[in-house]
């Protein structure tokens, strides 16, 4: 199910990139933004986050495949499209870069400091938030689950690296894996493996029973 959703979203992203080039840049009122603000915009597969540095500049951690296959800085500096982003996620190549508000938002609506309402930690001083983001500009280790754009902005603004998106995803996966359906399917798979091998051993029988039983009890 998750694989199908990812593939469908990927092909949707391909179409979005083509259409995005035809859409005029959405005007943003940057006068309401302050240095250190946490900006949030929806992208194709997830919500993207950044830290406003002032003067129409946003620092954000974003995956990008282009630096892997090209050394042309003028091309790399252009807005990261969904194609580049998704392939960067797969390759685990990312950096904290500074873009204009328009390029960061990619035509989407911007939410400002909405995390302040859901995070239990109070935000740091605005200047400290911006300084933290500026110190991390450049290539950086990336993981979709363990260090993504949300981890980056949460560290900068609240002093703690966390991701609500990752937590929600892990809960969904846990619910899917530790389900009664998974227990039944694992039992069928284990029995099929025993039949395929053509031999029955104590160890094989125990694994055939223990794995589905464990998933069943945990569901």
UniProtKB/TrEMBL annotation:
Assigned keywords, A-Z: Membrane, Signal, Transmembrane, Transmembrane helix
GO cellular component, one term: rough endoplasmic reticulum
Annotated transmembrane regions: 184-217
Pfam family membership, one: LRAT
Annotated catalytic residues: 149
Signal peptide (UniProt feature, chain positions): 1-25
Ranges for domain LRAT: 38-165
UniProt cross-references to Gene3D superfamilies, sorted A to Z: endopeptidase domain like (from Nostoc punctiforme)
Gene Ontology molecular function: any one: phosphatidylcholine-retinol O-acyltransferase activity
Organism in which the protein naturally occurs: Silurus meridionalis (Southern catfish)
GO biological process, one term: vitamin A metabolic process
Entry-linked PROSITE patterns: LRAT
Name under which the protein is recorded: LRAT domain-containing protein
Highest taxon of the lineage: Eukaryota
